[in-house]
Input
Amino acid sequence: MKRINILLCVVVFSGALFACSDYPVFSEMGTSRLRVILKGTFESNNPRPWDLSSPENMRDDSIDDLTTDTTTAPTRFMLDIAEMQLQGSGNADKFAFYRETYSIPLLDSEAFFDGTGVEYPGDDPYSNYQYTSVLVYIRKMIFDMATHWQFNYSTLSWEAQEAPESIFNETTVQGVDFNQLQYNTYWDSLRTNSKDVIRIFPLRIYFPPGGFVYDRRYPETVLEIRFVIKNFIRYYEYDDTSSGYYEVLHFWALSDWLRNVRPDDTVMGGNIIAVARSYVPGRTASITGTGGTAGNYIIAIETGVDNIANYTFTPPARPDASGACYQPRVPTVLNYSDPYAWLDYYIQYEKYRYDLNSFITGCLDAGIYDDQWDAYEGQVENFRIPPLVTYKSGSSYTLTNVPVGKTYQLYYAAAGTRGTLPTNYTQLGSPITIQESDAGKTITGP
Output
């Protein structure tokens, strides 16, 4: 009888470890077959080298108050992630409930920037469940080499202040946490529910069409998440009058190629461009070829599932970039104890009244304000980047970790200037089918 009871307990306990959805309740006693790899590159392998030369040419056109300071290129990127979740069909799976911080030098040799990637701790998600996106809860993003300036009305000049500091990993570091400005896009800030929208906590990153299905039968699966950071940064200005003085912060943040930042904007969200993809080590191949020219990006997308139109895009101009739909900013007194500051304010206020009347009659009364902004957001919100990308630095290219059992079409595009992404791709050869039996092989492409 005792043996029967013991056997019954073992059977019941074993059954409790697995739910009906083929998900281990205790995550197989803390082990994980899923490796989460984070990369700071547009490319999935062989990224374009860093170009931090001539940082003065990386100043954004939104800088309008202090335009003469010396620009110094950043040397370090700091990233603080609270947790991650996988999501599909409205259900979320907290597979990575861990906080991790990364302080990464801006060097080609760093894993985050060399195509290798850095690991993020996680557990096994549900097996055989289709996920469409991964939610990344970003706490902080910081580049160093920020500066702080205050305007002196007595001398009519800008005076350098102590370099701005932020708290990162419970330590004071030099730099501006620009993540605080990424919670909303400018379009969000115009809406009545703007306070209810937080784009960065979490940041939703989509998988390519077809999603991600995790299968625990394989000893290891890689979930690759790429943030476009390398060669995708710019120098910005933020106005700060909280102290009662006219101050600006100059800082580095991600490029506004997708959603343009304009002078005096208080938010700059929507410019984190990222993609997630997955593959099973041992069930991948490489594609190598000579098509395109040195300095091109070579991409591959799955035929019959994905479409190149998903990655062909030219960022539209913001509705307030010019014309009647520019909404003027309300001026403020920049130094309550200085009479020159008050004179400045009254002059600015008169211009504000004139611009406001033009905005009301030319845009609001015409009923085109909402329509123009919604049409703009409709174009930018669905932009995606390809799951497989490599940079052709010589006479040939190689795409690595390409999942087998699928057919791919390759394309190429010029890499372009810093802070931008390709807008159009040209087809490269005919589709390539990689058989299951091609695992571990190098396939010759166009």
Notes: The chain is about 15% helix and 35% strand.
